Amino acid sequence: MAAAAAAAAVGGPQPPQPELPAPGLSLDKAATAAHLKAALSRPDNRAGAEELQALLERVLSAERPLTAAADGEEAAAAGGGGGPGAAEEEALEWCKCLLAGGGGYDEFCAAVRAYDPAALCGLVWTANFVAYRCRTCGISPCMSLCAECFHQGDHTGHDFNMFRSQAGGACDCGDSNVMRESGFCKRHQIKSSSNIPCVPKDLLMMSEFVLPRFIFCLIQYLREGYNEPADVPSEKDLNKVLQLLEPQISFLEDLTKMGGAMRSVLTQVLTNQQNYKDLTSGLGENACAKKSHEKYLIALKSSGLTYPEDKLVYGVQEPSAGTSTLAVQGFAGAAGTFGQLDSSDEEDQDGSQGLGKRKRVKLSGSTKDQSIMDVLKHKSFLEELLFWTIKYEFPQKMVTFLLNMLPDQEYKVAFTKTFVQHYAFIMKTLKKSHESDTMSNRIVHISVQLFSNEELARQVTEECQLLDIMVTVLLYMMESCLIKSELQDEENSLHVVVNCGEALLKNNTYWPLVSDFINILSHQSVAKRFLEDHGLLVTWMNFVSFFQGMNLNKRELNEHVEFESQTYYAAFAAELEACAQPMWGLLSHCKVRETQEYTRNVVRYCLEALQDWFDAINFVDEPAPNQVTFHLPLHRYYAMFLSKAVKCQELDLDSVLPDQEMLMKLMIHPLQIQASLAEIHSNMWVRNGLQIKGQAMTYVQSHFCNSMIDPDIYLLQVCASRLDPDYFISSVFERFKVVDLLTMASQHQNTVLDAEHERSMLEGALTFLVILLSLRLHLGMSDDEILRAEMVAQLCMNDRTHSSLLDLIPENPNPKSGIIPGSYSFESVLSAVADFKAPVFEPGGSMQQGMYTPKAEVWDQEFDPVMVILRTVYRRDVQSAMDRYTAFLKQSGKFPGNPWPPYKKRTPLHPSYKGLMRLLHCKTLHIVLFTLLYKILMDHQNLSEHVLCMVLYLIELGLENSAEEESDEEASVCGPERCHDSWFPGSNLVSNMRHFINYVRVRVPETAPEVKRDSLASTSSDSLSSLQSSRRPKVLQRENSGTAQVFSLVAERRKKFQEIINRSSSEANQVVRPKTSSKWSAPGSAPQLTTAILEIKESILSLLIKLHHKLSGKQNSYYPPWLDDIEILIQPEIPKYNHGDGITAVERILLKAALQSRMNKRIIEEICRKVTPPVPPKKITAAEKKTLDKEERRQKARERQQKLLAEFASRQKSFMETAMDVDSPENDIPMEITTAEPQVSEAVYDCVICGQSGPSSEDRPTGLVVLLQASSVLGQCRDNIEPKKLPITEEEQIYPWDTYAAVHDVRLSLLQRYFKDSSCLLAVSIGWEGGVYVQTCGHTLHIDCHKSYMESLRNDQVLQGFSVDKGEFTCPLCRQFANSVLPCYPGSNVESNLWQRPSNKSIQDLIKEVEELQGRPGAFPVSISSETNLSKEMESVMKDIKNTTQKKYRDYSKTPGSPDNDFLFMYSVARTNLELELIHRGGNLCSGGASTAGKRSCLNQLFHVLALHMRLYSIDSEYNPWRKLTQLVEEVNSQQGNEEQQPEVPILYHDVTSLLLIQILMMPQPLRKDHFTCIVKVLFTLLYTQALVALSVKCNEEDRSAWKHMGALKKNTCDAEKSYEVLLSFVISELSKGKLYHEEGTQECAMVSPIAWSPESMEKYLQDFCLPFLRITSLLQHHLFGEDLPSCQEEEEFSVLSSCLGLLPTFYQTEHPFISASCLDWPVPAFDIISQWCFEINSFTERHAEQGKALLIQESRWKLPHLLQLPENYNTIFQYYHRKTCSVCTKVPKDPAVCLVCGTFVCLKGLCCKQQSYCECVLHSQNCGAGTGIFLLINASVIIIIRGHRFCLWGSVYLDAHGEEDRDLRRGKPLYICKERYKVLEQQWISHTFDHINKRWGPHYNGL
User: Fold this and answer.
1) Which of 872, 991, 1145, 1253 is the most buried (most CB within 10 A)?
2) DSSP state letter for 1635
3) Residue 1206: exposed, middle, or buried by beta-carbon count in 10 A (0-12, 13-18, 19+)?
4) In sequence order, which residues have a C-beta less than 8 Å from that of residue 225 and are 6 or more positions away?
């Protein structure tokens, strides 16, 4: 190949070169390149090759740039370049030119791309990239797709999700090894290799010559840059080198993107060994190359690696700084063969050496393994490149380049092999790295691409010993952090475990390696090799044993532990990831019978490892007290493989079980864990801190349980099924430390347990037995049954969302095992057991997600308390499940009382485990059950209902699983050999139940009541024994326990254990045994024990019947049901016994006992026939009496508390109903504020703080609790019909031109341009944006009380969700958020009748009165001069109102601080509140009724405060608009005189509603009704005229003239002033005098509405024009005078409101159609006043016709405010916005957000967009919503609300198919809009109730 020839030229003498032109001009470069290309294309190209070589030698010399960079010199040598970077740029330019061979580089790229056979996508991405994963299409679970390929493929209906890449990844589209072809996208579906033409030879010829040199140059740079100092090189230096190399690596990356043709050239270059050898060997004269090679060797050496050519014997190499411990530990015998070391051999050889080396070399053929760790030989560029990539800790750019090459198949194989070859080196670098997290991600980024491919993994496993390498590397990695195990025998233990406190485990540094291992084990072909290789299995078990017994807990007995270690997280994670997940991976390949051999191998080596472990920790037969480890991975491996063997492989269980002694040892530690769980829950470990509870919870938590507790319990079940049942049962009670409690005596002593823990430990022991005997997870349930049982258990505890259910159901935890949650069976089981409850809203505002709840039949038949107990992390969940069960029974009428947990039938046992049921039929258990029943019946202390429940459960289990139906004859004859054991004759529960026990001898303290003072003669009556084992009498030989025959659990167990051991072990070990028992002997502090004899005379059956009486509280309550109905015995499954309490349980058991044997049936009948004597009276000691009284008192107290709570709850409920209904106007019960009886002279208020009621007075004013907030909701009304949508493409934009606020702003600025400022400020209202809205919860308080309340809040150190300094507080009664108090004006609330009576004064008189009253300044009943408390408060609240909004929303005047401004602001506050109330009512008053919040409206009080302040500014009577409205002005000409002064605003341009408020607020309060009506009538005439003018401007010239004539004809009729036609024609003729209608024809057409005006449409237009005014006025009247609003149809709203306001004459007939003009009541002759008004307009339009016209036309129909409409699917928003760049800084924001009110795109928390310390969202919330912002966070799908200085997360309006939110898009399932939620959000925005409904607020400190 040409490249080889070129390379050969390097070493030889350099030929003379033609003088090259100066490298400055690209033209010359191109020429040179073209010349060289031509030279190389000749057949004989030696000369060309040499010439090119020399040129490259010059251009790419490695010395220059880096010396420049290193020494900081200006790179003078770089050929006149500027800075240090110039030389590299120059070199790159040359390379580009040479590659292109004289053409343009871009054209060259395009040409190469044309030959791209891209069948694969291979797009590489880094962390945080958004990608997709489709489980339906994936073959490997690691499969991922880039967004583009995903959206171009068809995945409808598939199980896919979007995810944010954690470590980076690559797109698998087109790779059929990883995904199914059906999922490929359109681009990669075509197998395109066929139709791509062949690459012309000359196109890439230059590349083959240039690239080797270029890559070599890069490698030299990397060698140069790496200085190996004594310590670790600082990251800064490394990063510096990498920054310099950025352009070179980017250049390579660009080459890879040119497609397949270029990639294959690169592959050739990177893998060609000859090239590498020639260029890098460091031979030849080139000093630079030599130096570089030396650096390379130093770097290798310092990494603890050898270079094979050094011919070193591996063990003897000098240890240098970073060498791994193993290289040094000198395998001195490396020359000798180690072979497979024998275990005992090794003990001797290593026993004496220190700890770190124990059992170090249990590796197969260790010489080979040593080489795995320490030898690297690089044969190609690729290998050395990877070496440096690792050395530099995986720089992102390098990683991306290496991955971008992967679509090339040849490269993929070469790279994978190289990666494997460097695996040990990767591990070493990772361990030393400071940035292990980043590095881990980068490693996995690479390895997941390589090892997910089964074909590749198999090839590497076969050719490169991948498995050996991985296991060895893992083993060596863990060996660096081993410590001595303290389990069992601290001094002599030889076992070592990992130290969970080490960084390696704490930071999870091992996960990349473990994750790769799990990944390759998921391939069947690889796993099979692993399972067949005995050496590997031995090594692996050795690895697992490092985790066996780690993180040992020792119980603190004296004081609380000082420092709570948190290492348990690390320990659990390590066991799950490093041990359990590989185990599940292996198990997934052992599913069929043919794989039996594998299981045998694993089980064999597992047992060997366990045996070694028992020896190493010196374990005999008793576990050391007070310590527990939750980590027994060897036990769990063994258990899980056993389970698989029986379940799937049909192996005979006994063939893989060890001998009895081993089984006894095996059961000890798992049993110890179960007992410790009970101890932890009994608070016996409380001194160890919270972390021990954390461990107990983690052990059973859903992600861990099937790798921890399930295998443990299964292993115990296996042991129990094979060991002697009496031995097993006694072990259990001994482990749980309750042996001493199991005595018939009423008092006992427990040497190992405090009395207060006894009850819960006994419950623990019995519960454990119940679980052990009834759990069938591994004993015969099918996978679907298990799934169903798990699901039912979780659903019974609580309703669950779909995702939490997926999370809680323990799936096979290995994520790569191919068992995917969400698979078909999950959904089908879910729909079978649960009903879906759609997401709902509660009126309180809390939003529910879609939940699944168990179906009724599930509660009825499948609720399984045992499964629930096993799976609960918190004990309260068990209670929760029982409560829900109780509720179900009550609701369905099955059982009214408090039920007991139901007994559930079990799946049949697998035959291999039949032995387990022997536990239920062993005497020990029967003795325990008998004793406990007796104790419960006799009311001994420390027994609970739970104990009884479990006892009955065990009896029932025994009856259900009785071994064989006994024949009655057999039972009556008692075998002679059984007589010696006086308790029970046999071992079958059925027959033992009826066995009467007469006397029992017990050992009790002398003080006990049982000690009779007479002789012990009665002992002879029946040689009895006791279950009492006080201090293990047999062993300790205390007192004369030999004489009385005492039955002792422990002694029995000892005996059995001795027997078994004598059979199985040599005498040598025997010597050690007794030592353990001595640990238990306690100091002889116990009081003297004596023997007493109790007369019992009961059998289990009789005890049960008495228990029935006791439970039911009646004598003779049990009556055998079969005596009435013989059917019961034939058809025993009776539903009536399924659910119920203890009584039902007893009846069920007796029925089953009777069914099982006729003898039992007869005995039950007999017992019932004898009238049962009352339960013997107990001798109650004073102490017991005390405890009983205490119990009784407690019970009573509890009942009292319940009653109180219930009462409180109902009171609270009724209060909530009256106080908190946010959206239900119907059922409002108004509170005292608006008392309905008008005759009450003075309103009475209740203070919610001091509780006194009374009127509000001057000195002690009462106030309403109010919340003032600035609002821009009104400004968001729009005038167009279709709703605004959120923009989701570049084209869609939202402009704020058509909002109410914008229109008003334009109008005000127009007026201010042409008219006098002070007059303008009276002509409009402000507050459309930033208006102040006042709302109250309706509660009142004394203002002085409020002040002291605020003081107390200020001193309260508790962190509140509000800021007291800003005056914020919560209402002391209903806790509603508030920030001010509005003083109540003294006096009546509803105006008294006097004011209400309609007077008969004429309108003219009233007008005069109004004028006079307005003229009187401050004619307020309270004189302002005398400062009272009330007036002070009114001023302060006014200040609050002003400060609520920003200055820009209050100051509109041209002269800052002018009083007109305040005046405008004040009446606008009233306007804002009225307008908002109108919006809350839906924009009209059709519904009528009281105010939405009759009791919650504070408008009345607000009006008083505003009026008080308005009266301070008297309007100069000259300018009072009232005169213009009601009088004709004579001197018309005076205005013309002063031209220079701006005119006043013409009255027709005034906003009528504003005038109304000004007029009313200028009047002295309280206002008289007839004055009010008078003002309304006058203003209506103005309004109507405005409507006519607007109408006339709207229509065209012909219409105008037609109307002018029509009206003129009628002008002289009687009611001309009330006919709109007449008035309209008059208006037109008046205005025609001016220039209003004279406009250019062109514009005319634009303004004209095309409709033909009919009288109907004109009438409608006029009504619509007037309606907004009528609505506001009616509301105002309603608030001032307390009159109810009538309800009506929409069409009659005008007439109803006008009659309500008194505009309609009372005698008005309603027959003919209603005409709006009939409401007119002109105070002065209509035509005169109209012409006066029109004159003002005409004089204005003389100059400004255009603006004059614009000001007249007002849009009357505004749509209610709405949030933007959102698209159906969230993905459309996400795809557009998550990559959108910020308009300020043009970067893609980290947290993009979008405003839902106006659609603005903002950065959340973005520092780039900060202005004066305000981040963008906060700033926008002030500008867009006056402090309220509603933002959708794009990357999280949640909505965040900003209100002033606080914010809260509101929730999401996008839910997935199961009705759940997906905050932070963690699950990545498709999300759809939930319209109801969005409505709720909008409702809260419009009604300003965010503060009340959302509870979790926090300060944002302007940082959002």
Assistant:
1) 1145
2) T
3) exposed
4) 66, 237, 238, 240, 241, 244, 245
Query: Amino acid identity of 363?
Result: L
User: Which of 1637, 1636, 1606 has its CA nearest to residue 1623?
Assistant: 1606
Higher pLDDT, 906 or 1044: 906
Structure tokens at 263: 């990639």
pLDDT band with cut points at 50, 70 and 90 for residue 1611: confident
Which residues lie below 8 Å from residue 1777, measured CB to CB, with a gap of 6+? 1792, 1794, 1801, 1834
Residue 1435 host element (H or E): helix 1429-1444
pLDDT at residue 1316 in the model: 86
Residue 1128's pLDDT is what? 67
CA distances in angstroms from 551 to 360, 500, 542, listed in the order given: 21, 6, 18
Over its C-alpha atoms, the chain yields an Rg (Å, rounded) of 46
For residue 827, pLDDT over 50 is answered with yes
Is 1090:1003 a contact under the CB 8 Å cutoff?
yes
* C-alpha–C-alpha distance, residues 886 and 900, integer Å: 9
Quote the tokens at residue 770: 């119940």
Share of the chain above pLDDT 70, in %: 77
Beta-strand relationship, 1898-1899 and 1846-1851: antiparallel
Q: CA 545, CA 615: separation in Å to the nearest integer? A: 13
Residue 360 neighbours by CB under 8 Å, 6+ apart: 329, 350, 479
CA angle 187, 191, 193 (to 5 degrees): 110
Q: How far apart are CA 1358 and CA 1363, in angstroms?
A: 12
327 token code pair: 């290289």
Q: Is the pLDDT of residue 763 over 90?
A: yes
Cβ(391)–Cβ(429) below 8 Å: yes
More confident of the two residues 1265 and 1075: 1265
Q: What is the mean pLDDT of the chain?
A: 78
Cα(1064)–Cα(1062) distance, rounded to whole angstroms? Answer: 5
Determine the Cα–Cα distance for residues 1799 and 1780; give it in Å rounded to an integer: 14
Number of DSSP helices (H) and strands (E) in the chain, helices first: 78, 28
Angle at 1647 between CA 1645 and CA 1653, to 5 degrees: 90
* Residue that has been written with the tokens 């580009």 in this structure: 96
Distance CA 1210, CA 1228 (A): 18
To the nearest 10°, the Cα dihedral for 1086, 1092, 1094, 1099? 70
Q: φ and ψ at 366, to 5 degrees?
A: -70, -25
Write 38-42 long-range contacts (CB < 8 A, 24+): 40/2, 40/205, 40/206, 40/209, 41/202, 41/205
Q: In 3-state terms, what secondary structure has residue 961?
A: coil
Beta bridge partner(s), residue 100: none
Strands 482-484, 1380-1383: pairing kind: unpaired
- Using an 8 Å Cβ cutoff, are 1076 and 620 in contact? yes
Output the 3-class SS for 886-900.
HHHHHHHCCCCCCCC
Burial (CB count within 10 angstroms: exposed 0-12, middle 13-18, buried 19+), residue 1183 = exposed
Looking at this protein, which amino acid is placed at residue 1207?
Answer: E
Residues in Cβ contact with 1846 at an 8 Å cutoff, skipping those fewer than 6 apart: 1361, 1362, 1897, 1898, 1899, 1900
Q: Is 130 helix (H, G, I), strand (E, B) or coil?
A: strand
Share of the chain above pLDDT 90, in %: 25
In angstroms, rounded to a whole number, what is the distance separating the alpha carbons of residues 29 and 94?
7
Q: Specify the pLDDT at position 244.
A: 79
Residue-wise pLDDT for 1326-1345, tens only, equals 888 999 999 998 899 999 99
pLDDT of residue 1355: 83
Overall residue count recorded for the chain in this entry = 1904
